[in-house]
Design goal:
The protein has 274 residues and is α+β, with helices and mostly antiparallel strands. The protein folds into 2 domains: 2-113, D-amino Acid Aminotransferase, Chain A, domain 1 (2-Layer Sandwich); 123-272, Alpha-Beta Barrel (D-amino Acid Aminotransferase, Chain A, domain 2), CATH 3.20.10.10. It has 7 helices and 15 strands. Strands 7, 8, 9, 10, 11, 12, 13, 14 and 15 form a 9-stranded mixed beta sheet that branches. α5 (202-214) crosses α7. The model has no long low-confidence stretch (mean pLDDT 96).
């Protein structure tokens, strides 16, 4: 449920019908977690949004991303929002046709939603029929066109699963429909390489760079096969809103949840989210 919404910093509930984000998915977005109006991991979101806008050839990408996140936080602080928020940046209004107007006037849309129910039980997962498409130039970015994930999430809902693993066209695991995937085997932690497709999550970055190494894990970004997933001691999924979620099963394959391990990783991650 949306509690508050703003367009370019002003309270609003609609955007013009010629917005290029609506018509051509010409833009990027960030899913945010807020505490009393403050955006957690704001610098990581700014870095990723900057990379997306640079790749989309937005003018003054870095300064615009910095300004938009600062203004978004000011809006959220005014209402002391705690919970999820979404910041969407589009190229703004433009003429018909794929080619953007030069110069363009970007637009940002900010929504703040009510917190969802906490998900503490292990997730039941399947494997999506829809695959990620290779696009190395855009890999890792959180762009508006999320067709593969929409279809994968629909598959999960129809099957009654909490989530689905998503593969690429070579059959390698890339992510789930809701987040990034990590495999634990002893003190080894594997996560799929996102060199050709997928989204590089902010929580994934924290897990790779600090959380897991600080807990003694050897972290590798690499090609991950379904056989690797089935052979892992444990599987977890990370995203901004849940932190990490333990996977209890993937199709008929089940995992014995080690609450001590998951709780240690979850607690260490939350301690770094500021």
């Amino acid at each position: 449920m949306i509690r508050h919404s703003w367009v370019d910093g002003e309270k609003a509930t609609a955007i013009p019908v010629d917005d290029r984000g609506l018509n051509y998915a010409d833009g990027a977005f960030e899913t945010l977690l807020c505490r009393d109006g403050s955006i957690t991991c704001r610098s990581l979101h700014e870095e990723r949004l900057t990379r997306a806008l640079l790749e989309l050839r937005f003018d003054s990408s870095q300064s615009y991303a910095r300004r938009v996140l600062k203004e978004a936080e000011q809006c959220l602080l005014q209402v002391r929002h705690s919970g999820p928020a979404r910041l969407t940046v589009t190229r703004g209004s433009g003429p018909r046709g794929y080619a953007p107007a030069r110069p363009s006037s970007p637009r940002y849309i900010l929504t703040a939603a009510a917190p969802g129910e906490a998900e503490s039980r292990p997730w039941r997962c399947g494997i999506a029929a829809v695959h990620w498409q290779d696009q190395p130039q855009l890999a890792g970015l959180k762009l508006l066109a999320r067709t593969e994930q929409v279809l994968a999430a629909h598959e999960a809902a129809l099957a009654g699963w909490d989530d689905v693993l998503m593969l690429d066209n070579q059959g390698s695991v890339i992510s789930s429909s809701r987040g990034n995937v990590f495999l634990l085997a002893g003190q080894d932690a594997l996560t799929p390489s996102l060199a050709r497709s997928g989204i590089a999550g902010t929580r994934r970055q924290l897990l790779i760079e600090s959380v897991l190494p600080d807990l003694g894990y050897q972290v590798r970004e690499c090609t991950v096969a379904l056989e690797d997933v089935r052979g892992a001691d444990a599987v977890m999924i990370s995203n901004t809103l849940v932190g990490i979620a333990a996977v209890g099963s993937i199709n008929e394959h089940t995992y014995s949840a080690n609450n001590t391990v998951f709780n240690a990783i979850r607690d260490a991650l939350w301690q770094q989210i500021t």
